[in-house]
Amino acid sequence: MIYHALRPSMTARRHSGHQHVSGPSTAVCFRETDRPKRHDLYTQTTIDITRENTMRLSRRGLIAAGLSAPFIVRSDFARAAQHTLKLVYPDTPSHPFMQVARRFADTVKAKTEGAVEVQVFTTGQLGSQSNMLTGMQTGIIDLCCHTSGFVQTLYPKFMVVDLPFLFKDAETAERLLDGPIGPKLLQDLPSKGIYGLSYGHFGWRVVSTTGRSVKAPGEAKGMKIRVQPGAIYAAMFNTLGANPIQIDLSEIYLALSQGAIEAIETPMISMAASKHNEVVKTITQTNHVYNPGIMMASKRKLDSLAPNYQQAIREASLELTKDARVTIAKASQEVETRFAGQGIAVQAADRAAYRSAMKPVYDQFRPIIGADLMDDVLSQAA
Question: With helix as H, strand as E and coil as C, how does 358-382 read?
Answer without folding.
Answer: CHHHHHHHHHHHCHHHHHHHHHHHC
